[in-house]
Amino acid sequence: MGTYVITGGASGIGLAIAEQLTSEGHHCLSVDIQQADIVADLSSPEGRTDAIAAIKDKTGEKLAGLVTSAGVGSHVGNNALITEVNYFGTVDLVAGLHDTLAANKAAVLLVSSNSAPMPTNPDFITALLDSERERACELAAGMEGHPVYSGTKQAVTRWMRRHTAAYAAEGIRVNAIGPGYTRTPLSLAVEDDPKLGDSIKQFIASIPVGRPGLPQDMADAASFLLGERASFICGAMLYVDGGHDAMMRPDAL
Ligand code: NAI
Predict the structure, then answer these.
(1) How close is the Cα of 25 to the center of ligand 1, in Å?
(2) Domain for residue 135, yes or no?
(3) I need a surface site. Which of 66, 109, 119, 147 has the fewest CB within 10 A?
(4) 116-167: per-residue pLDDT in tens?
């Protein structure tokens, strides 16, 4: 049993993962902009630095794992915020905790999205992977919200795959889940959006298994990927989406 840190642990998928791990006897610390053990704004470099310092302070040598679930949706109307929270709020945290993760041979689970493979601006992805924050935010300002959102998720997943081998050599196992549509406060806000609502409802109706995802579906996958039974799974992106990715991209692996 160990201590898990969960960003975005105050709501939705992050909260369900924290509750699942707690029910298994682990200690969980949430990091969130609201109602958290560590209150931090992951949308700024300063907020991320403060979060990393507070996590190190509170977990010491006991960090069993990190889950990055903090994120904002494509509907927020602020593409720089999507870029900062979803991409830099994920990778800066993993990188900033690298030494502690290695010392503990910890597991990392990134909450990506099944939108990650969708077409987006390749220059935006390059700027993200090159850690060019200002350039990425500039490019995002000229894009629609959804390709910014899916682009941040694609870049998070590619960042994971680029770092998988080096991290594994130090004992850190990194994996990602790609949730499909999952009923949480974030997705309900998009479903209720007057402009996006109708197409989202059609999208939900097309999920092959016939229902939307629930936070517990993600928590079950997270529990498995973080645990010993997944000790040979490393650098994987597990779509937890009721078959939507397979339906939309049948010939892609
Ligand atoms: P949610 O809105 O229920 O939870 C997101 C959490 O992130 C909230 O507690 C929020 O306070 C926190 N957060 C937002 N901005 C922050 C900031 N600047 N600093 C610190 N914390 C911040 O949303 P949900 O649905 O649980 O989303 C969790 C993750 O799952 C996100 O990364 C999202 O992109 C991803 N996801 C969600 C899907 C869905 O259908 N709900 C589908 C695919 C991916």
Answers:
(1) 24
(2) yes
(3) 119
(4) 999 999 999 999 999 999 999 999 999 999 999 999 999 999 999 999 999 9
